[in-house]
Amino acid sequence: MGYIEGHSRDQMLLLPASVxxxxxxxxxxxxIAAFIDDLDLGELGFDRSRPKRTGRPGYDPADLxxxxxxxxxxRVRSSRCLAAETARNLEVIWLLGxxxxxxxxxxxxxxxxxxxxxxxxxxxxxxxxxxxxxxRELVAVDGTRLKAVNxxxxxxxxxxxxxxxxxxxxxxxEYLARLDLADRAExxxxxxxxxxxxxxxxxxxxxxxxxxxxxxxxxxxxxGESQLSLTDPDARGMATSPKVGVGYNAQVAVDARHxxxxxxxxxxxxxxLGFLAQTASAAREILGxxxxxxxxxxxxxKGEDIATCxxxxxxxxxxxxxxxxxxxxxxxxxxxxxxxxxEDCYTCPGGQRLDPYTRSQKPNGHVTIRYANMRxxxxxALKPQCASGTRRSIDRWEGEAVLExxxxxxxxxxxxxxxxxxxxxxxxxxxxxxxxxGAFLMRGLANVNAEFSLTALAYNLRRAINILGIPALxxxxxx
Length: 479
Ligand code: SF4
Hints:
Elements: H1 28-37, H2 41-44, H3 61-73, H4 79-88, H5 90-96, H6 103-112, H7 117-130, E1 138-147, E2 155-157, H8 158-184, H9 192-223, E3 227-229, E4 236-237, E5 246-255, E6 261-267, H10 276-287, E7 292-296, H11 303-311, E8 314-318, H12 325-328, E9 338-340, E10 345-347, E11 353-361, E12 367-372, H13 374-378, H14 383-386, E13 393-397, H15 401-412, H16 416-434, H17 445-468, H18 470-478
Parallel strand pairs: 1-7, 7-8
Antiparallel strand pairs: 1-5, 2-3, 4-5, 5-6, 9-10, 10-11, 11-12, 12-13
The structure holds iron/sulfur cluster.
Iron/sulfur cluster is lined by residues 348-350, 352, 376-377, 380, 382-383, 386-387, 392.
């Protein structure tokens, strides 16, 4: 018995007579083609969406867009790899009608049209909305750190630079002292001249590096920035994620029904603080509802941001982080002090009344009122469990009522934090593991935003295919 044999390479019809025969009716490329052909690319902001009357014809942006969407859906993101696919991948040959743009054309298309990828992502969200794929009641907001094209060694903070300048000063001083000693030693001593030359070279190198670091520190101070990245100037050290090192922070709002991404963007902030209202309200708008619940983790607990949520039709759910010196040292938590809005006072665990006694305002306008009862604390038997000093005080943000309302909502829906985890971990897990999203390929905040829009669109597309199937999606585009 022999083996199954392929065709002879000299046979005239190795491939089917039509490439169409090789692409099944439920192949995702059929939906990619129909979806892109149905869009008004000019309206979305794509360059050259209308062909020029004169000059050499360029590639239709629709073709290059189809190629990118196919690539991101199939873990092929680099322009060189995409160019290779146009020559060897039957699905791509079908999708592009045999066109073979070179890698530079492919790369330039993504760069030139970077601002249009977010509207493209939104077009698919609107299609999913038409297909009733969103619950439109609850979104989970979260951020993930993604690596930039910038190594840790090429990222500098003011502190790091100041430390290196100080170290260089110390080293230069030490080398100069050693050089002085060598000078005073007998010039004829064996190897003295060689050692002196080596020290001088070291001092010169150290001075040069010190000069460079001083200039970088001066630039940082002048720009008002806290960090300087040499390869990708917009990338920042992500302190909360040491594995990522230098990178970006991708923010998403995910609808709880099918875990589809509704809103996404990339920032270079190392923290999630302050991004809840912005992300959730954009999701609310595109979902077309008056009000939406938004759940996020403790990293989003910021009073002003939570207050803004209520102003923009977002009902926030963020668990209060247990932080502060009281918690660290095991004293009574702030939540154990009851606030009375009518009397404007707190009642402490010892049953004593704490009244306001100071009011302070930070430069950002954040007003805090401090409550205490010095006399009661002085004789209190519970003080060892409550305070280390002479008294215990409680700070209250002026708008804290909004946080208290949120705490009541959270107490009424204890399951909501589990729903957050289930909802938001799905896209992040899929993007990082299944879609193999490693470091961003491009540099600069605007470019990585374009890249992440494509990633999020490919994730949503894969979800929609899994939920509805290609024929239903094709039907929706053609309707
Ligand atoms: S130490 Fe002061 S605040 Fe704490 S329980 Fe006693 S009286 Fe109340």
